[in-house]
Structures are given as C-alpha cells and as structure tokens.
Amino acid sequence: MVKICCIGAGYVGGPTMAVIALKCPSIEVAVVDISAPRIAAWNSDQLPIYEPGIDEIVKQCRGKNLFFSTAVEKHVSEADIIFVSVNTPTKTQGLGAGKAADLTYWESAARMIADVSKSNKIVVEKSTVPVKTAEAIEKILTHNSKGIKYQILSNPEFLAEGTAIEDLFSPDRVLIGGRETPDGQKATQALKEVYAHWVPEDRIIITNLWSAELSKLAANAFLAQRISSVNAMSALCEATGANISEVAHAVGKDTRIGPKFLNASVGFGGSCFQKDILNLVYICECNGLTEVANYWKQVIKVNDYQKNRFVNRVVSSMFNTVSGKKIAILGFAFKKDTGDTRETPAIDVCKGLLGDKAQLSIYDLQVTEDQIRRELSMKKFDWDHPIHLQLMSPAAVKEVSVVWDAYEATNGAHGICILTEWDEFKTLDYKKIFDNMQKPAFLFDGRNVVDVEKLREIGFIVYSIGKPLDAWLKDMPAMA
C-alpha cells in the first residue's frame, strides 16, 4: 500500500489530503501537525476550517484511509510520498524583510525528514514557495542523506477558498515539476499516478522544478493584477460618472479578456495574493530586474490605495468625522464561503475607522470574535506565524463589539460598511435596518452587492464602489 504523509494540517493540507483519500481508497493518507488543538479539531465534529463539502469527505474517510495525527516523525518515516504544506510567511526582519518568504518552517521540516527517514522518499512542495526553494531543500536532504535517496517535486496548489473541494475534484490543471533525470521522471510519474485516479491526463502538466514554482507565483500575480486593474478603473468611474459594472461587463465580453476577476471591490485579500507578489518582487530585485519588480509592486499599491480610498469616502461623507459614531461592519472574511481572515481588506478598513475613533459593531457569518480581535490587534505579516508567537494587545480593540446578527450590528448605527459579499447581505430587510439607524443613514457597499436605487428610495445615502455617486457625495473629496 502506498503511504502518503502531509506535514501541515491547514487550509491546503487538510482538504487536499481528504480528497486524495476519498479518490484513492488504496492509498493510506496521514495528515500530521505539531499543533495538538488543530489535530484534535480535525478528529472532531467541528473541523478547524470552514469549506463547503469538506465535512462529509472527512467523515467518510477518517479512520479508514485518512488519519490526522501529531505523531509527525512516525508517519514521515513510514511514508513513500511526503507533502510539505507548512507556512512560508513574509519575513518581518532581516534580509528581505517585508518581501522575502521566511523558509524557517520549511527548512526545519526538511531537516526532520532527513533525521527520521529510513527509506527512499519523494518530497513534494505543496506550500507556495519562492523559486529555487526545491534546490535548497535538496541540498539539506542530500547533505544529511545517510545513503537514502530523495526526489523533490513541486506541486503547487491552485485552490480558491470557498470552492476548494470543487477545485480539487475538477481542477483546471495539476502541475508537477521535477528534475529532468531518470529518477526525477520516475518520481514525477509516481505522483502523477496518484492524481490520475480522478484527474484527466490532459490536465496533468509536467514541467521542470523552477517552472512549477514560478507558475504558482505568476498565476496569483496575474489574478491580483486583474483585481487592481478593475479597482483602478472604479476610481475613474466615480470621478467621471461611469458605472464600473457596465464597464467591466463590456470589457469582459472580449474573449481575449474574459469576465472572471473583474468585480470591483474594496480590495483583494487572502493568504496568497499579497504575499506571492511581494515574493515575486523580491526575486525580481535579487535578479537585478528593477523595472519588473516595480511593475508588480504597483499591483499592491493600487490595492492599498483602494482600501484607503474607501475609508476616506466613509469619513468624508459623514461630515468628515466618525469619532464616537457607531459603524456596522457587515462581513469580515476576505470573501464569502470561507472563515479565512488572512489579509482581509476588512482589517485595514476597520483599523482606518478606529484611527478616527469610530465605534465598530462587526458581524460575519463564519468568523469568531477571537479571530476578529486577534486580527485587529496584530502587526502586518504576523498572521502567518504560529498563534503562540502572535502577541495580543486587547486594548487596541476596545472600540469593537462583535455580534451574531446583522440587525443587531446595524441597530442605532450611523453608517454600514459591507466588506464581504455574503449572499445574506443581498436579502436583508433594509427598510427595517433604515428605520433603526441614526439619520442621515449611510451605506457604503465595498462589494457591490446591494440594489443601490432601492436603498436610495428607502432613504439611505449610498456609496457603491465604481458606481455614479449619490448627489450627497459628489462634492465630497474622494481622498482626504
């Protein structure tokens, strides 16, 4: 029986291994992590991540050919194929701080694999890593090999949160990068055979190691670039009276461009986009490609500009101050159908409003109060380090209350900010909400989910990203 072990039981490792176990009943899959609470959650009825469809798969396979364990060394030593899905956070200090990926967790995983292995292994990079990481891992393993042979493969994930299970069941492509040697090709074939249980052969792409590593960074950079492009246009639409939804629809009809990722919003979030672009920028700079680095930096700059622009719109519309005013925040996750808050635009918007002394009442369908408070008290990039290394400073968020109902969040509020496109926010009783708010009642739609005209008829002053401005807002400056 082929044995697979995945180091790291997070958003990538958990769902990916669950689907492999489901689709390959003849393979034994172990997911290991040093975090006992996380493993306990995977073994319970309350899984540590929210992702549509994952509960059923885990319950079907757990205890049969899918195991979650803290016995890291035991499962690593027994495995034929080891997936490494550990964090690669952005460095916060030292060489490349603020841009380069910190490979501390990766290196310690590689050293541990070398320590405990008694048989030949295929080691698969599953986390997003900078180009040439495989080479570094290879060096660590071969210099500590004790006669054991290792083959390193790059198999980046292309999952979108909220549709991860769908993406795993029916991927656009599975990318496997390996060495172009006989042993490398053999290892590539072994991993290809795992995916071939359910993925059509023409969707499994084989490349060299560096192409696979770079393809992941490039894919995320291209997607983020589309969002920044449409968001840059949204600012111009507001200035000219154009409507970004109409512009995006017209642009997306061009088959060379296509309609996906053309929704204007308060900005992109998630664990990958910003981190991967910063990583790309750093690699470009290290290779002397300053102009290329500057090009990709601009994608992040426009994203930051969009979040600042939103906050300034809120403050300037409400008589240039939100001090002491209750602002309802609807949605904290970085997108709908996930409980993930990593790099969510809501963090910067909330911090911007708190900076002007607003009183925030936050409601999200999937995000816990602890998570919201932790995000608002953390420094940038700290989110990607283990929780026990994250400092809490609760004093920083005393102006925040977290509630479990949209109507409670908006009751008595001066303004509402919609920051996640949860479907629920399209169907709320906005007349009831309006009646219970301070007047004038403001609604700032950061996701373009509401019917602007209907809300204006009710009496709201509405700001919707990239849409023609409410008469009230026309004389207000877009940027303070």
Structure notes:
Keywords: NAD, Oxidoreductase. The protein is of the alpha/beta class and 480 residues long. The strands form three sheets. Strands 3-2-1-4-5-6 form a six-stranded parallel sheet, sandwiched between helices. Strands 11-10-9-12-13-14 form a six-stranded parallel sheet, sandwiched between helices. It has a two-stranded parallel sheet with strand order 7-8. The protein has helices at 13-23, 36-42, 54-61, 72-78, 104-116, 133-143, 164-169, 182-195, 209-240, 244-252, 273-286, 290-317, 345-355, 369-377, 406-410, 430-435, 452-458, 471-474, and strands at 3-7, 28-32, 66-69, 81-84, 121-125, 150-154, 174-178, 204-208, 326-330, 359-363, 400-402, 415-418, 442-445, 461-464. The protein has two domains: 2-199, 3-Layer(aba) Sandwich (Rossmann fold), CATH 3.40.50; 243-474, Rossmann fold. Helices cover 42% and strands 13% of the residues. The termini are far apart.
Brief descriptors of the model:
480 residues, alpha/beta, Rossmann fold, 2 domains, six-stranded parallel β-sheet
Short description:
The chain has 480 residues and is of the alpha/beta class. The chain has helices at 13-23, 36-42, 54-61, 72-78, 104-116, 133-143, 164-169, 182-195, 209-240, 244-252, 273-286, 290-317, 345-355, 369-377, 406-410, 430-435, 452-458, 471-474, and strands at residues 3-7, 28-32, 66-69, 81-84, 121-125, 150-154, 174-178, 204-208, 326-330, 359-363, 400-402, 415-418, 442-445, 461-464.
